[in-house]
Amino acid sequence: MENTRIVVVGVGGQGVLFASKVLAQAAMAEGNDAVMSEVHGMAQRGGVVVTNLCIGCIQSSLIGATEADIIFAFEPIEAYRQLALAHPETRFVTNTAPVIPVAVSIGKAKYPDLDDLFGQIREITPKLTAINADELARKAGSYLTVNTVLLGALAGTPDCPVSKDSMLAALKENVPPKMLDINLAAFELGFKSASE
Q: Cβ–Cβ contacts within 10 Å for residue 91, how many?
């Protein structure tokens, strides 16, 4: 397998670390090396959480400018903030539902226009998969499955470095039994939305 460098990014509480763990386990189950580093920042206060996951490239988990093969974002502004890491073949998978920062909610700032953000991403790469994962998670039965919807969406792209079956197996190992059916439904909704 070729080396694949994945940046997983979101806001604290969105399940960035969980999704990264599922991806890493799926890769290792397929016989690949996987190394990961994470930055929690002010996650408990709604700050950014970033994970660098490298599959096959075991020398370092750090991803520099124009080195990301996949940018996997749980929030649209966070996807945009990773633009310097992208190159023309980078696959973006992102949620379209924003997490409104405090400054925006109290009227001190304005949330950027999503069409503009996504337009700037498309100037770098045409490989943008943008879905409303919040809506699909509610449809599956729990807002807490947004991360699983997005895992399904990543699995539905041709650039996913692991198979759908391996990702589902890793998901089953990491989700509590009482939440498994909802998570499997969420994964399938994400997969279907990305592969249509």
A: 23
Give, for 35, the enclosing helix (H) or strand (E): strand 34-39
Q: CA-to-CA distance for 175 and 90, rounded, in angstroms?
A: 29
Spatial contact of 35 and 54, defined as CB atoms under 8 Å apart: yes
Contact 129, 91 (CB under 8 A): yes
Checking phi first, is residue 110 left (phi over 0); if not, alpha (psi -120 to 50) or beta?
Answer: beta
pTM: 0.91
Contact 194, 129 (CB under 8 A): yes
CA 93 to centroid of chain Cα atoms: 6
Cα torsion through 77, 80, 84, 86, rounded to 10: 130
Residue with tokens 């599922």: 22
Question: Residue 107, class by beta-carbon neighbours within 10 Å (0-12 exposed, 13-18 middle, 19+ buried)?
Answer: exposed
CA distance 91 to 157: 9
Tens of pLDDT, residue by residue over 107-163, are 888 989 999 999 999 999 999 999 999 999 999 999 999 999 999 999 999 999 999
Q: Which top CATH class is 4-133+159-166?
A: alpha beta
Residue given tokens 């449809």 in the structure block: 139
Q: Give the span between the Cα atoms of 94 and 74, in whole angstroms.
A: 6
| Every domain of the chain and the residues it spans | 4-133+159-166
Q: Residue 43's pLDDT is what?
A: 47
